[in-house]
Amino acid sequence: DAGVTQSPTHLIKTRGQQVTLRCSPKSGHDTVSWYQQALGQGPQFIFQYYEEEERQRGNFPDRFSGHQFPNYSSELNVNALLLGDSALYLCASSLSASALHFGNGTRLTVT
Amino acid sequence: AQRVTQPEKLLSVFKGAPVELKCNYSYSGSPELFWYVQYSRQRLQLLLRHISRESIKGFTADLNKGETSFHLKKPFAQEEDSAMYYCALKNDMRFGAGTRLTVKP
User: Fold this and answer.
1) Predicted pLDDT at A6
2) Cβ contact (<8 Å) for B93 and A33?
3) Which of A9, A102, A104 to mutate to test the interface with B (most CBs of B within 10 A)?
4) What is the pLDDT of residues B13-48, one digit of tens each?
5) Structural domain tally of chain A?
6) In chain B, where are the structural domains located?
7) Contacts of A56 in chain B (CB under 8 A)
């Protein structure tokens, strides 16, 4: 079992552009959560998807959107990128209310 | 406001010494608390959860609702315990800022 996989591992974008990050959950998991982790900070919750719907959302603007597919994989989209969006984006999967299993993250740099 | 506070960004102890990583939370309902750990060059992973009341790698954590705390403890720290530790409140998916533990030989 490969666990949670995220792609790409690194990404460089220009301010104002749009980006899509991808996540495949651990086998058997049906819930995907996304986090943003700035340097020196703890993970900040963006949103969680279950049964292809956004179930819970943190304090992030509408520029952050997501999707979950029937195979439980998920995408995080960020529009109109700002310099402050530079961070490590973590995906975590879980089976319903169980503990989170994290991926290695995608490092996004906005220039 | 609901929050998770880890007051120490850095904690350094000698091998064999006891260690306590502090976590305080603010939540109006019944909290579900976890400790996650990130070793060097590894992904963030679950260490333990308060519901299971288990000891993992010698670590324990007790939920104290009166003091709204969930401190992580180990009686005898080992060098391999050096890592970043995060306390998390599962109810609103919130993480603390983390404590970097260094265990010196």
Assistant:
1) 98
2) yes
3) A102
4) 999 999 999 999 999 888 999 999 999 999 999 999
5) 1
6) 3-104
7) 92-93
